[in-house]
Amino acid sequence: MSDFLLDPNVVFLNHGSFGACPRPVFEEYQHWQRKLETQPVKFLARDLPELLADARSQVANYLGAQPTEIVFVPNPTFAANTIARCLDLGEGDEVLITDHEYGACRFAFQFAGSKKGFRVVEQAIPLPVESDQAVADTFWQGVTDRTKLIFISHITSATALTLPIPEICQRAREAGILTMIDGAHAPGQIDVDLGQLGADFYTATCHKWMCAPKGSGVFYVREDRQQLIEPLVVGWGWGPEKTFHRDNEFIEHHEWLGTHDPSAYLTVPTAIAWQQQHITPEVRQRSRDLVHTAVQQASLIEGIERVHPDSFFYQMGLIDVTTLQVDADALKIWLYDTHRIEAPTIRWNGRTFIRVSAHAYTTEQDIQHLLHALGELPNQHQLRQA
C-alpha cells in the first residue's frame, strides 16, 4: 500500500515492534507540530485542553469506553509503572503474571515489588496451547488468597499468543482480584470493546496496529476504580492551583505531565479515521492469511516448526527455529544484511522464534522472500549457537 513511508527495499515484517505510520497520518502529525511551534503559549496553555478532550473522546469511542475513563500516555510501559508504583500493594501481596509478559512491564512490577514488598508470581503457560479454556485454567493455577492483581497481555509480544481475557477478567472479578491488561498489540489488530472486556485497567499502544505516530498510547481506568490510582507524575493538574480546571479529577491528575509535545496524541483520531477507511475486515483477514501462510509453509522446511494453532494468532505469528540451534542475534542480522528482511528474533524459555507481522502493505512476494531465506537456514552453520 503506497500510503506507507517504509523503505521499499526492505521486506518489513515487524509491524509489531513500532508499527508504521501512513503518509496522511504522518502529515497530520506534522501539522500539529507546526501549529505548536507557531504559537507555543496559545497552543499549550489555552487550546490544548479542548483539543485533548476531543481526541480522547474519539479514542474512547473507538475502544468502547467513556471519555472520562481514558487518558493519553506515551506507551503501555508508562501505564504499567503507574499501576505498579501507585496501587496499594505491599508485604504479602502477590501480582500474578504469565511467563509470556513483555519485559519492560514485567520489570516495572518487579522493581516496585522490591521496594514495596509484594511478590511478582509468574505462571507458566506452556506452548503449544490447546484451547482458551485450557489457557484460563492453567493460568488460574497461579491464583492464591494473596493474589491482589492480575497483569497479563491481551496479545503477548514475545509469543504472539492471544489470551482469553474476558474469561480471566470474569474469574478475577468474582474472586475480588483487580485486573490490568497490557493491550499493546490488540487495538487495530483485533476489535476491542473495553466496556465488554471486564478489565479494571487497560493500556494500549496507538503507534503499533492503530498506525498512529510513535509515543502515543492510552491508559484506561474503569470509573469505579479511579480512586485507587495516584498519578505517577505529579504536576500542575494535581495541586490546588490547577493549570486546567475540569470536572474529572482522574484526567486532571494524569494528563498533564509538564511540557511535552502532544502532537502524537492529537493525531490518534486521524489514525482511527484512516483505519476505518482502509483497514477493512477483508484487509485484516488478508494480513492474517499471509501470516498463516508464512507459518504453515515455514513448518515444511527441515528443522522449522510451528507453535500455535491458527485460532490463537492474528496478524502476528511465530516460526520456531529452536531445533536448528541458531543464535537469535546472528539470525536477525543475517536476515537483514543478507536478505533485507526486518523481522524480530526472540528467545523465550530456551526456544528461538522468528515473529512475523503482516499489515496492509505486506505482499505475497514478501512472504515468499522470507520463505526463500528460511530455506537456506538449515545450512547456515555460521549461525549456530555457541
3D structure, described in words:
With 386 residues, the chain is α/β, with parallel strands linked by helices. 41% of the residues lie in helices and 15% in strands. Keywords: Isomerase, Pyridoxal phosphate. It comes from Aeoliella mucimassa. GO terms for molecular function: isopenicillin-N epimerase activity.
What's the CATH topology name of the largest domain? Answer: Aspartate Aminotransferase, domain 2
Give the name of the CATH superfamily of the largest domain.
Type I PLP-dependent aspartate aminotransferase-like (Major domain)
Q: Mean of the pLDDT scores? A: 94
Q: What would you say the CATH architecture of the largest domain is?
A: 3-Layer(aba) Sandwich
Biggest sheet, strands in spatial order? Answer: 2-8-7-6-5-3-4
Oligomer: single chain
Question: What's the total count of β strands?
Answer: 13
**Domains counted in the coordinates: how many?**
2
Question: What is the global morphology?
Answer: globular
Write down the CATH class of the largest domain: Alpha Beta
Distance between the termini: 41 Å
Low-confidence segments, ≥5 residues, pLDDT <50? Answer: none
| Structural class by secondary-structure content | alpha/beta
- SSE sequence, one letter per element: EHHHEHEHEHEHEHEEHHHEEHEEEH
Strand content is: 15-25%
Task: Supply the number of helical segments.
Answer: 13
Give the gist of this structure:
The chain contains 13 helices and 13 strands.
